[in-house]
Structures are given as C-alpha cells and as structure tokens.
Amino acid sequence: MIKSLLCMSDNENVFTLLTVFPSRRRTVRIRKRGRTLVSSYDINVMYFWDDCCRCSVPRLKQAVLSWVPVLGWLPRYSIRENAIGDLISGCSVGIMHLPQGMAYALLASLPPVFGLYTSLYPVLVYFLFGTSRHISIGTFAVMSIMVGSVTERLAPDSNFVGNGTNGTVRVNIDARDAFRVQIACSLTVLTGIFQILLGVVRFGFVVNYLSEPLVRGYTTGSACHVCVSQLKYLFGVSPSRFSGPLSLIYTLVDICRLLPQTQVPELVVSLVSLAVLIAVKEINGCYRQKLPLPIPIELIVIIVATIISHFCGLDSKYSIDVVGEIPSGLNAPQVPDATLFSEVIGDAFAVAIVGYAINISLGKTFALKHGYKVDSNQELVALGLSNTVGSFFQCYSVTCSLSRSLIQESTGGKTQVAGVISSIIVLITVLKIGALFEDLPKAILSTIVFVNLKGMFKQFMDVPMLWKTNKVDLLVWLVTFLSTILLNLDLGLAVSIGFSMLTFIFRTQRPRYSILGQLPGTDLYLDTDAYRGTREIPGIKIFRSSTTICYTNAEMYLEALQEKVCGRGSMIVGVFVRGGVHLITRCNPCLQSAASHSSHLLFSPLMWLNSAYQHDTTMLDSDSNTGFHGDGSIKQVSHHDDERGSACGSDVHSIILDLSTTGFVDTVTTNTLRNIFRDFGEIDIDLYLTGCQACVVEQLETAGFFSVSIPKSRLFVTVHDAVLHILKKRGQRDSILVRPLL
Questions:
Q1: What is the Cα gyration radius of the chain?
Q2: Cis link prior to 605 (omega < 30° from 0)?
Q3: pLDDT at 164
Q4: What's phi and psi for 170, nearest 5 deg?
Q5: CA atoms of 110 and 127, how far apart (whole Å)
Q6: How far apart, in whole angstroms, are the C-alpha atoms of residue 427 and residue 578?
Q7: Spatial separation of the C-alpha atoms in residues 203 and 668, rounded to whole Å
Q8: Is there a contact between 550 and 666 (Cβ–Cβ < 8 Å)?
Q9: Where in this chain does the record put each STAS domain (predicted)?
Q10: Are the CB atoms for 238 and 223 separated by under 8 Å?
Q11: Terminal CA-to-CA distance of the chain, rounded, Å?
Q12: Residue 405: count of CB within 10 angstroms of its CB
C-alpha cells in the first residue's frame, strides 16, 4: 500500500508531501517562498528489493489468506447469527439449481445431467476461493448459449448420421453427446486458465473496459439467442443448424417455415407450463415480503410434469421429446482433450471475459449493499479455478446467476456456506433422485429457461432511460445489441468492445477546454463559461483541459490554447531576424517558433525578405502597423481581422496552464509543453504550470523538461499561488483581484 500525506512543517512556508512505502520514505518538499519545487529522495533501492523478497511468517500468512479467503472468514463464522439464514438460503438456491441446471444444459447442447454436475463442483471450489458472500455460482443462460454455440459448431448432427432400421437415417445421439461433452470440457479448462492467468498478473481491471451499457446490451442480445434456441422444443420442430453472422435470423426464419409441422401435444405442454410458471412467479414477486420463502414453482412443475409424462406415456403415445437416461452417481475425473484447444481458444477467451464481467458486476453490487469488499483479481482466480477444476468433472463454464443470487441474498444468506448447502442438495439429487426425471419433457425445461429470461428482457427499458441521460451510452447499448444479434455471440462481443473503445477514444479526443476566472472573494478558479460569477484576472489567462494531455490530444490542446488565449480572429504579426533574413509572420504565436528556428523556406502565410530590402516595408499590408527597427531587432504589433477581442501581445502578459486533470505525461506532451513555453516566451508572455501531481513532476524531470529557460520557479501547487506570484512580480497589489460583488 502507498499512503500520501500533506502536512505542514514548523516553517509555515514549507509544505511536505510524504509518500510512505512499506520500507522506505520519499519526501517531496514544496517551498512557497520563492515558488520553487525541490525534490529530495531518500530511497535505498537495495533495501527496497531486499524488503520485497524477504519472507516472514506474517507475510506468508497474509499471502495464504489472500489466495484462500475461506481460511480467513470460516474460523470466525458465527453459527448463531448466520447458520439459520444460510440454511434457508442454501435450500432455496439448491431447489433452483435442479431445474435450472437441467434446463441450461440443453442450451449448451449437452445432456441435462451435466448441468447438475456444473451446479455441484464449481460451487464448492468458489466456496474456498471466492470473496463474494451472496452470489450463486453455477449454470447461467448466457454462458450456456455461448458454450452451446461452440459445441454445435464443432459437433453438428450431420457428423454423426448413420443408417438406422428399415433404411432410415439416424443420428448417433450417444456419440454426438460424448464428443460435445469433450468440447465443452476443453473449452471450460481453457477458459479457467485464461481467468487464472489474468488474476495472477492482477489484470482484474480489464473488466472496467466493459461498460455497463455494453454488458447489459450484450446480455440482452444473448437472451434473444437463448429464446430462439428454445423455440424448437416449444413447437416440437427440428430446424436446420446455422452458424456465423445472421445465424439467428436464418434460424428464426426456418422455425417459422416449420410452424405447420408443429407438434400440438408439445405446444400444449409448453403453453400450460408457461402459464403456471408466469402466474406463480408474479405471485412470488408481489408477495415476497409476506412469503417466508418463494414458492419453488419450477421444481413443482418439473415433478408434476414428470409424473404425468410417466403414467400417461406421453413419450410413446404423443412422441413428446423427453430428457432420457440420467445416470446415477458421479463420474470419475477425466483430463480434457488438449487437441481441441486450438479450435476453441478464441471462444474460451470470450467466455472468460463475459463470465467474469457478469460475476464481478453482480458481486460488487451485493458488496456495496452489504458493506464489504470484493477483490476483483481474486474473483478472477476463484472463477478460473471453478472452471478449471470443474472441467475435470465434466462441467462446463460457469458464472453467477442473477435469479439465484437474488434468492440467496433475499432469503437471508450471509456467507458462501449457503452455496455448500445447495451443493449438498444437488449431490443428493445426482446420487439418488436423478433417474426419476428421465420422463421429464424437454419442453418443460425450455419454458423454465423462457421464464428466467424475464430479467434480461427488462433491460430493454435501458433504451428510453439512456436516451434521456446519455446518448453515447445509448449508442453503445444499441450497437452491442445489434452486433450480438446479427454477428453472433463471439464476433458480436469483439465488435462491441471495439466500438466501445472508439467512443472512449472519441471522448478523450474531444475534451472540454476552458478559461478559468476567479470566484469573487475566494481562491477558487472556475470555468468562465459555466459560472457567470467568475471574473478573469487582467493580463492573466488561466487555461485548463478536462482530461489528461497525451499524444492523442496534444495537438488539439495546442490549438485550443491558441484559440482561447489569443482569440479566433486575432493574429500576431512579428519579424524575426535569422542569419540576415527577416521572417514576417502573420499567425498565432505558437506557430512562430517553426519559422524562427528554421533556416528553410516556409510556405504561406510566411514571407521571406532579404535584409537588403529592410527599407521596403510598404510591401506589408497597408492597414497593419507591422515593422521592425533598422538594427534588426524585433518589433511586434497586433493585427485584427475583425473587432473581436485583442491579440495576445496587446494585454496578456502571463498564461497559467492548470494541469490538475493530467495524470501522466508522455514524450509528445512534454515536447508540446516545451514548445508552448518557447513560443510564448518569444513574444514576452510568461507561462506557469499549476496543480501538477507528484508523478507528473517526476515524469517531467525524467524527460529533462526543466532547464534554464523553464525553471522550476514556474511550477506552483495551486492556481491562486501562481496568480499571487505574477501580481507580485509585476509590482501589482493583491487588490487587483476581484472582490466579492455586493
């Protein structure tokens, strides 16, 4: 940890900024007297590295607790305060895991039992390594559809077609599902490896580049993919499989073409199930304050539908597609197929980023609500380990589920002990009860998926809200949604991130530049355009950019400075003597240095005159007062193209550059500032820097910015200090500052 402290020494004219490191102290003294900044370092590099590499018992204990957080909070677990809430919450979430695990496995194009496996192992791993107390790890619709797009692409039905009885063509379901499980496991282990590596190198901040409009637009588009993928189970049709851009549109068109072939029994089952699920979920929402526990309608529907299907023979009589065989017990761990890595590496990275983005956004929401901290880097490691370990037990990629997390939090869950209890319920189901659901119609699972998409479809309400608040974010949302719909999940995510970064670059490329004025009676200096009560100090221009100055906007900063300080319609006319040749300029002052430091011919609006023709000054514009002395010295006067304002040289004698918004400086920025000092100095305008952070001063020193022509006496802590210094230097009294208005 680095701590900064600004304190005053015994001498009230000396301020000391202390930056304290674990084993070293760095002192930066800012002397008000003389307005100089003097940096002194008492850093011993050898001691620093020795301290970093030293191992001690407390440091080892801290490292272990940071990597395995359960060792920190479980010994202090309060049974009296947390046990009841975690028990009720764990049972509620476990009941939700059963139907959602089987239903979301269909989205991943895997047998339902693998959804139960995914609801078991990763939850236990996250219990050990996670830092969020309320999120529920396991299957999720968006992750399932992303995995399903990969499994169907690499293992389509056409690759497993064989000859059936009576010369019919039949798909080898067992071989297809086995290969799809291998693909899903390979994808999952690679996803986990990516997440672990990003977490180890402290790359958790990468999710910051996925803005909330991008994530919400992407999940909404993914919900549309989920919805379309489940229509075939609702109508009992078998559309062709499409991949690549516009695959969603092609699939929807194909389903509409097959509507005349709809299986009426499956449609009836779907509609009845949808009606019951929607009605009871609305009751849960309306009476959640009065109900001790939400009605587990999903589990009830699954049990009832399984009983009816079994005793009425819906599979044999009406050809309703059912879940089929669900093996009891747990499978032995298997190593994922590494030969598939090259085919899924791009998808794995996309799944890793999306899964982490959903996980950390929901985790931070609950952490903020309940007053604890979620470590973004540790969450990456925890999620990566959940995926990596789970892949050895035939699990596919996981993240947190919004619906289950809300249930876990609202039913009184306080810690991840609730996750362990939910895993026990899933384990009992897999070992003893799973085979009882073999006659469950797949249409029931599809309706459960549909109903759980309600929260994501509500995100369409973001559109009118963003229209009122921020149209750039609205554009990001719409582009993300449309690219996800039209270009599929993987390519859509890449396009969305690229467009979001372009909007960020555009915003930094178009910062707000302002001239500051003093707020009467204070030492505050605010934008004169935004605050009417401010007044400029006569002869002093205070210029500020709203963002960091870097290579992308340095030229715009220079142009804005010229426009703000000198005025759009003003030009400086000067004659510079260089090697017996006079250069006459009619441009803004910062452009003069290019001519005054060059011995080559420059183009318009610069004119070269030989010193032999010094007497012929009539060739200049007759309405200007430009000229020069016969001894070769420079004479400067102002030339106005219109009546607006005055030129820089007429009344501005000092310019203050407020760099308080600048967090770093690069080579281009340093050169730009150096050129600004040089160019304005040639027309007798003094420049000063204020508000520089310590890191900015260090970078300027390293770049050799300070010199005889640009001394550190031009550097001040605040704008007001610089103003006082300028007034004192020019022999003006502080009374020139604007007084409060009566």
A1: 35
A2: yes
A3: 61
A4: -135, 140
A5: 26
A6: 88
A7: 27
A8: yes
A9: 530-726
A10: no
A11: 49
A12: 23
pLDDT digits (tens, 9 = 90+) for 16-54: 343 344 444 444 444 444 444 444 334 444 444 555 566
How far apart CA 152 and CA 577 sit, in angstroms, is 76
Q: Which residues contact 479 (CB under 8 A, 6 or more apart)?
A: 217, 495, 496, 499
Q: Is 633 helix (H, G, I), strand (E, B) or coil?
A: coil
Q: Are strands 686-690 and 654-658 parallel, antiparallel or unpaired?
A: parallel
Tokens of 169: 């063509």
Which three-class secondary structure state does DSSP give residue 399? strand
CB 647 within 8 A of CB 572: yes
Distance of CA 621 to the CA centre of its chain: 56
pLDDT band (50, 70, 90) for residue 597: very low
What is the model's pTM? 0.71
Q: Tokens standing for 16?
A: 């000391």
Using DSSP's 3-state secondary structure scheme, residue 699 falls into: helix
Take residue 359 and report the two structure tokens written for it.
């996980």
**d(Cα 286, Cα 382) in Å, to the nearest integer?**
35
- Coil, helix or strand for 220? helix
* Residue 590: pLDDT over 50: no
d(CA 492, CA 244): 10
Q: Which of 164-178, 455-469, 677-691 has the lowest mean pLDDT?
A: 164-178
Average pLDDT of the segment spanning 689-713:
91
Within 8 A by CB and 6+ apart from 155, the residues are 176, 179, 180, 183
Helical spans, DSSP H, in 19-131: 45-53, 57-67, 70-73, 79-107, 112-118, 121-129
Residue pLDDT, tens place only, 658-692 = 999 998 999 999 999 999 999 898 888 999 999 99
CA angle 98, 104, 109 (to 5 degrees): 130
Using DSSP's 3-state secondary structure scheme, residue 640 falls into strand
* Contacts of residue 53, Cβ cutoff 8 Å, sequence gap at least 6: none
d(CA 183, CA 151): 6
C-alpha span between 107 and 226 (Å, rounded): 7
| Bridge partner residues of 517 (DSSP) | 526
Q: What secondary structure letter does DSSP report for 261?
A: G
- Strands annotated E in 360-512: 399-400
Report whether 100 contacts 112 (CB < 8 A): no
